[in-house]
Design a protein that fits this description.
8 helices; Rossmann fold; alpha/beta; five-stranded parallel β-sheet; Response regulatory domain-containing protein
Length: 244
Amino acid sequence: MTNKLRVLAWGDTTHRDFQQAYSAIASDDHTQLVGPQEPYALVVVFQARPGTVCANDVEVLRERMPLAGLVVVLGSWCEGEMRTGTPLPHAERLFWYQFPAWWQRARGQWQRGEATDWQRPSGQPLPTTTSLAGKVIAIDAVDHASADTLVTTIEDHGGRAIWQPRRQTPRLASPPDAGVWVGSQLDSAEEAQLAAFQQTLAEGAPLVVLLDFPRADREQAAKQLGATAVLGKPWRVEQLMASF
């Protein structure tokens, strides 16, 4: 029988921001949710707002299983935590919209017997292995800086990136294999622009939407318009690649 990854979920697990994240753990056939008195390999702390999770309680969990990984998943109201709050120490910090891609990658590493993201020193991501060879990725961004960064990242992973400045008709022989749309807060004007961009992609193509700081309702709106993943800025290379 295959050993399961034993995960302790702690904190604001029932908050609406974390429905998708908590469900990803609970529904995973290779994962077992356990209580704080049982052995665990990973602690996932859900924090809806700054201060809703007691740092002392988390420290007790860390001391109980010092080799266990510690990840804090932050809700929409934690956007300014680094400026105005006191982040939990010794933990990898992910916002709620970053967790699904992180979980898919890290859980896969564990299942294959590889070193996992939660075992690495903070700030030192493991190299990505995703290849975009042969893929054409369309980019819809309003500024050169955003477009240039995305083009470089995609081409570094073997893909071909084409920047389509907003409101310009794309000149492609065939629909792109995937798209990246860069926005702000996804207001009504941006919703129309995103919908138009989605129509230029191949049927079923991945569509990654980058927003300044996604809220749950904006993520839902983006996905109703065809987005397959919604990430916040600044985005992580490994999470962008996983979204394709």
